[in-house]
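Fold these two proteins, one after the other.
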Amino acid sequence: MQKQFYRGTGKKLMDKSIAVINEATKKFRTMGAPVVWIQHSDNKMGLAEGNPGYEIVDSLVPAEGEVKVVKTKGNGFIGTELDAILKGKGISQLFVCGYAAEGCVNRTYHGALKLNYEVRKVRDATASSSKLLLSIFNRIGRYADLGKILTR
């Protein structure tokens, strides 16, 4: 979730999901599971590295040493080292969340499926600038409820 989109309806929906993301990342860290952050870079969208809009929103804080992947396509696997990083760590199961549910999160979710990852969307941990598109996104795919993730 990048600052460029933290406004209007997107901000309201992000605020709802940020608490869930923070709880999930805290638990994953406690479990010793890696947390990977993906940022979109696109000069036309004001998402150039170094631009304030490119930065992750202040209420989400990557821990020291966590992997950050910079992507230029909707799917976080295209043109990045994400697949190699995950395979290098022996990871076969993914939990995805973030912004924009109907765009980047959805494309990365399907990209992971095509690469044979066991992938779930974290319920209530995605946001969009559109309540309608978020509603449609929430009806598609496989989900993991945070409570069930946290009891593993």
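Now the second one:
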Amino acid sequence: MKLPLILIRVDKLAQVIWSKDLLRALFRYGALKGIYNMSYDGKGRAVQGAEGMAYKAWITAWALALIWGMACPAIASGPELREIRFEKGKDGEERVLFVLNGDHPPKSFAIEGKKPRLICDFFGVRLNKKVKRLIKVHDGSIKAIRVGIHLSPALKTRVVLDLRPDQDYEIQQAVFVDENIYAVVLRVKSEVGQR
């Protein structure tokens, strides 16, 4: 007796692809027997017996267990942004710390104008569900930290630091590889000159 090879492909979306041979084998060896064992009432409606319902429940549970077991490790692994912390330092210094699960520094750029922003794009990095999507900062140069996820054309976690307008900033970036932390340090230039 030759059993079919189960073809399962797990990628970013944990897609599961079944082969026709698998379904034929399940039917042939009795797993799907009860699902197609139906009778009809006098009005032409299909009536399924208890045996068919039990097989359907068994197959559903089996398929879900297989998918869950294969998909969860694939989803759980990979680059992740685990935490975002805001810290106020001495002399008006403000720090935003990004805690990751590896060395995954972002591509960062600034937008000047009436609504200045610092944008950090973490490509291929997913967001931990414990990370808040909006962190409000009540005083200082940073007004708020916003987090968004972009799926197209590729996975990207975008963090936007909304800055107060009409100020000149000095922005420094640092990576602490051993701690898996990417840091942004922000100072207003007038405060930098006073030190």
